[in-house]
Amino acid sequence: MNTILQDPRTGLFCVNPGHWTPDERQARVFENSLEAIGFCTAHHLPPTRVILKYEPDRYYDVKLMVTNAGVAEWPPARN
User: Fold this and answer.
1) Which pairing describes strands 62-67 and 48-53: parallel, antiparallel, or unpaired?
2) Contact (Cβ atoms closer than 8 angstroms) between residue 50 and residue 40
3) Phi, then psi, of 67 in degrees rounded to 5
4) CA–CA separation, 22 vs 31, rounded Å?
5) Rounded distance, CA 50 to CA 30, Å?
6) What are the tens digits of pLDDT across the range 9-43?
7) Which residue has the higher pLDDT, 35 or 76?
8) Element (H or E) spanning 72, and its range?
9) Cβ-contact 4, 24 below 8 angstroms
Protein backbone atom coordinates (compact mmCIF):
# COMPACT_ATOMS: atom_id res chain seq x y z
CA MET A 1 0.00 0.00 0.00
CA ASN A 2 1.20 3.52 -0.83
CA THR A 3 0.00 6.68 0.90
CA ILE A 4 0.13 9.86 -1.19
CA LEU A 5 -1.32 13.39 -1.14
CA GLN A 6 -3.41 15.05 -3.84
CA ASP A 7 -4.71 18.59 -4.24
CA PRO A 8 -8.46 18.07 -4.81
CA ARG A 9 -8.77 21.35 -6.73
CA THR A 10 -6.02 20.72 -9.28
CA GLY A 11 -5.59 16.93 -9.19
CA LEU A 12 -1.83 17.40 -8.69
CA PHE A 13 0.17 15.13 -6.37
CA CYS A 14 2.50 16.36 -3.61
CA VAL A 15 6.24 15.89 -4.03
CA ASN A 16 7.27 18.40 -1.32
CA PRO A 17 5.62 21.48 0.20
CA GLY A 18 5.16 23.89 -2.69
CA HIS A 19 6.08 21.28 -5.33
CA TRP A 20 3.20 19.39 -6.92
CA THR A 21 3.21 17.17 -10.03
CA PRO A 22 0.59 15.76 -12.41
CA ASP A 23 2.54 12.46 -12.44
CA GLU A 24 1.27 10.22 -9.64
CA ARG A 25 4.45 8.11 -9.90
CA GLN A 26 6.54 11.11 -8.76
CA ALA A 27 4.42 11.74 -5.66
CA ARG A 28 6.00 11.53 -2.23
CA VAL A 29 5.09 8.21 -0.57
CA PHE A 30 4.35 8.27 3.17
CA GLU A 31 4.72 5.32 5.56
CA ASN A 32 1.07 5.55 6.61
CA SER A 33 -1.93 7.85 6.85
CA LEU A 34 -0.84 9.36 10.18
CA GLU A 35 2.47 10.47 8.69
CA ALA A 36 0.65 12.00 5.70
CA ILE A 37 -1.88 13.82 7.92
CA GLY A 38 0.94 15.09 10.14
CA PHE A 39 2.75 16.39 7.04
CA CYS A 40 -0.39 18.27 5.97
CA THR A 41 -0.82 19.94 9.35
CA ALA A 42 2.91 20.65 9.88
CA HIS A 43 3.13 22.40 6.51
CA HIS A 44 -0.28 24.14 6.78
CA LEU A 45 -1.45 22.71 3.46
CA PRO A 46 -4.85 23.77 2.14
CA PRO A 47 -7.54 21.06 2.07
CA THR A 48 -5.70 17.98 0.80
CA ARG A 49 -6.76 14.47 -0.17
CA VAL A 50 -4.85 11.59 1.47
CA ILE A 51 -5.03 8.51 -0.76
CA LEU A 52 -4.29 5.02 0.53
CA LYS A 53 -3.54 3.12 -2.66
CA TYR A 54 -3.85 -0.63 -2.80
CA GLU A 55 -2.00 -2.10 -5.77
CA PRO A 56 -2.83 -3.58 -8.15
CA ASP A 57 -6.58 -3.30 -7.46
CA ARG A 58 -7.60 0.36 -7.13
CA TYR A 59 -11.06 -0.79 -6.09
CA TYR A 60 -9.81 -0.84 -2.50
CA ASP A 61 -8.25 2.65 -2.51
CA VAL A 62 -9.30 4.85 0.43
CA LYS A 63 -9.54 8.63 0.11
CA LEU A 64 -9.59 10.98 3.10
CA MET A 65 -9.86 14.75 3.11
CA VAL A 66 -7.59 16.68 5.48
CA THR A 67 -8.66 20.25 6.30
CA ASN A 68 -7.97 22.69 9.12
CA ALA A 69 -11.17 21.30 10.68
CA GLY A 70 -9.87 17.71 10.74
CA VAL A 71 -10.11 14.55 8.64
CA ALA A 72 -13.17 13.25 6.79
CA GLU A 73 -13.95 10.35 4.47
CA TRP A 74 -13.91 11.40 0.81
CA PRO A 75 -16.33 11.47 -0.84
CA PRO A 76 -18.60 12.02 2.16
CA ALA A 77 -20.77 9.04 3.07
CA ARG A 78 -24.44 9.40 2.22
CA ASN A 79 -27.05 8.56 4.84
Assistant:
1) antiparallel
2) yes
3) -130, 175
4) 21
5) 10
6) 999 999 998 899 999 999 999 999 999 999 998 99
7) 35
8) strand 70-73
9) yes
| More confident site: 52 or 72 | 52
Residue 53's nearest CA partner among 39, 33, 78 is 33
Lateral strand order in the sheet of 70-73: 19-21, 13-16, 2-6, 48-53, 62-67, 70-73
Residue type, 41: T
Q: Give the DSSP letter of residue 51.
A: E
Domain parsing of the chain, residue ranges? 2-73
In angstroms, the CA 2 to CA 6 distance is 13
CA gap 22, 45 in Å, rounded: 17
Amino acid at 32: N
